[in-house]
Design the sequence.
């Protein structure tokens, strides 16, 4: 059967800026840490997992969540994400639909 249309309330993909300590742990110097991947999202379909560090979108370096949102805004068609997973770099292909905007919400931590 047809899958249900995504609802506005579905969980977004959660990300956070990479700190020096997190970078050392995950094996990346720049990028955005994926802390969770929502159900029925293009990120999940592409194979993105919690713990991945997104370092590039279509070969352009991503340093923080703001840069990631800017690189993804209004995109349609195929794009590539370079991610570091288990300290190894890999490339994921993402099919962006015209009707969906990537839902990448920064997670804020209070200090």
Sequence:
């Amino acid at each position: 059967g047809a899958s249900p249309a995504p609802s506005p309330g579905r969980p977004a993909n959660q990300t956070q800026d990479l700190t020096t300590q997190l970078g050392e742990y995950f094996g990346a110097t720049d990028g955005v840490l994926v802390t969770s991947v929502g159900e029925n999202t293009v990120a999940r379909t592409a194979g993105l997992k919690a713990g991945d560090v997104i370092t590039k979108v279509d070969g352009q370096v991503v340093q923080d969540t703001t840069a990631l949102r800017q690189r993804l805004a209004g995109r349609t068609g195929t794009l590539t994400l370079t991610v570091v997973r288990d300290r190894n770099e890999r490339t994921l292909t993402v099919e962006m639909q015209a009707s969906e905007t990537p839902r990448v919400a920064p997670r804020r931590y209070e200090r």
Summary: The longest strand covers residues 77-85. Helices lie at 20-26, 42-46, 65-72. Residues 8 and 103 are 10 Å apart (CA to CA). The longest helix spans residues 65-72.
